[in-house]
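Researcher: We plan to redesign the surface later, but first we want a full-length starting point. Tokens attached.
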């Protein structure tokens, strides 16, 4: 009989496909700021947009993504830093979606386990993503780094979650896609970390996850 009673998930690139959302955001960006697009190479623009995003991933100030992008691909009108941040905060959460099968899976897990989320990022954006995708219906608690005051892999964000959930680490599984932030982080708090690795990436670190899965449903193999 499994001693696991609580399952905690990372959000971006675990429950939500962030790369897909960034591609959708790029289309919104084109529509809003490039009415008469002279830059014919949209593929190059998308590639650079993704590069700026990746370089500044986890940083709340998204002018660091948009400002250099607009400098490289100028718009007809000047865009203020406030407008850049507002564009990102308003539109990115709306670009996320969750497959219905994932929601059904979470619904079945919720019947037997306490479910929670630990995620790095902006409180405003992360909550917006969660509510816009209806994930809020499946999780008892959500812990966001900006609100908690600690960022993964700092073990303290995991310890805050354990305390609020009133659970000991040996009864918890944590599922995340990032070996350093998610797996090493939860292991620092003595939580078993399952590496969500749908693309079969090579583990080039010395971090040894409790298990590795390619689909979320494989979690079931570690619950019975």
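Model: Full-length starting sequence:
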């Amino acid at each position: 009989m499994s001693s696991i009673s609580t399952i905690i998930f990372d959000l971006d690139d675990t429950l939500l496909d962030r790369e897909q959302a960034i591609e959708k955001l790029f289309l919104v960006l084109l529509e809003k700021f490039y009415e008469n697009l002279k830059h014919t190479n949209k593929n190059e623009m998308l590639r650079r947009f993704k590069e700026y995003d990746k370089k500044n991933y986890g940083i709340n100030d998204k002018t660091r993504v948009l400002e250099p992008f607009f400098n490289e691909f100028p718009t007809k009108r000047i865009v203020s830093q406030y407008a850049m941040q507002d564009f990102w905060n308003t539109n990115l959460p709306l670009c996320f979606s969750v497959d219905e099968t994932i929601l059904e899976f979470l619904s079945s897990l919720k019947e037997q386990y306490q479910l929670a989320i630990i995620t790095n990022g902006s409180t405003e954006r992360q909550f917006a993503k969660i509510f816009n995708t209806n994930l809020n219906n499946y999780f008892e608690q959500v812990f966001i780094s900006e609100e908690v005051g600690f960022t993964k892999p700092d073990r303290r964000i995991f310890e805050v979650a354990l305390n609020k959930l009133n659970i000991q680490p040996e009864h918890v599984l944590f599922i995340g896609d990032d070996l350093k932030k998610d797996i090493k982080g939860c292991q620092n708090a003595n939580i078993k970390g399952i590496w969500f690795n749908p693309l079969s990436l090579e583990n080039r670190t010395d971090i040894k996850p409790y298990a590795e899965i390619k689909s979320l449903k494989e979690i079931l193999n570690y619950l019975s």
